[in-house]
């Protein structure tokens, strides 16, 4: 039987999010009316805002110091590139110039980014798994945050970048400060 969302560990949960967004982008490609395009684009933007928030607030900080720094830093910058497009798309209408192009480029950027996260052995998730992070504890924290983030973004909060000029880049470099750097490590018996 397929795993429910509640039973998934952190990596299964993030991968399920990836598949969901890919499906929305595929549906966008096939959409023919401006109303359907806008509905699907907004759905993809909402899912991506929530997904990048839980990764940046919970998963990535737990990875800091435990996986390749370059990979993690590039992930934040890739998120920010996506977020600038997301905010543009949300503010635009399907009749505007470059609307379809923006959605297409966003989907391509996400495809590349997801590959970096999911790549076998050297990808971010594989490195995090090998580092022994507690994927069940991280999943619980992300499920809880996902619910509140969904409410915030549904209420109209725009995506916030962390690494671009003028941003407070310290937030992207910060360790989790609410639970200590080792709180999300699995107990030795579960490694
Ligand atoms: Fe992701
Ligand atoms: Fe990501």
Largest sheet: none
Shape verdict: globular
Bound molecules: fe (ii) ion
Number of domains: 1
Radius of gyration: 17 Å
In terms of DSSP E residues, the strand content is under 5%
Strand tally is 0
SS summary, helix count: 7
* Average of the residue pLDDT scores: 92
What distance lies between the first and last C-alpha atoms, to the nearest angstrom? 25 Å
Helix content: 55-70%
Unreliably modeled segments: none
Class per helix and strand makeup: mainly alpha
SSE series:
HHHHHHH
What does this structure look like?
The chain has 191 residues and is mainly alpha-helical. The chain has one domain (9-164). Helix content is 65%, strand content 0%. The protein contains 7 helices and no strands. Helix 1 (10-30) packs antiparallel against helix 2 (34-63) and helix 3 packs antiparallel against helix 4 (99-118). The longest helix has 30 residues, at 34-63. The radius of gyration is 17 Å and the shape is globular. The two termini are 25 Å apart. The mean pLDDT is 92. Bound molecules: fe (ii) ion (2 copies).
List keywords for this structure.
globular, binds fe (ii) ion
